[in-house]
Fold these 2 entries.
Entry 1:
Amino acid sequence: MSTNKVVGVSYSPEDGTPTVILKGAGADADSLLAQARRREDLPVVHAPTLTEHLYRTPMDTPVAKELFPVMAALLAHVLHTDRLNRESQQ
């Protein structure tokens, strides 16, 4: 049986590299996910394979270079979705 996992990643262009800032498993993951879904400014993306890779990354550590292409695609998706949401609210 697999345990739910959640990983939070922070990125700002000034830092240059996404960083793992939050991790949780099981009931902690469920609680963190529920909190994130209540906030409009925290995008939530379901990506189990990526989550497994990121979960192995120590807290406050940059994401491994091997994951940059996936993280770039994820960031592009989040930014696109955010822009569409802002446009629909105008």
Entry 2:
Amino acid sequence: MSKILAGTVVSCKKAKTVVVAVETRRPHPLYKKLVRQIKKYKAHNENFNLSAGDKVKIMETRPQSKEKHFKVIEVLKKE
């Protein structure tokens, strides 16, 4: 089963690659307050014309390069 995540495009300066920031909220183990965690993923972007601020869905795939293991499958909202 492939992992599917939704996030915001942070950078689109590389050719066919975008950096997507995915935010998750998890309870702190001791204090039980919701803590926001942001992780950045490099994703392969072949056909979409994206810019910073766009909301996208990414899916885990085979490794495209050393750090790129996701690809953009859908654009949720253009900025």
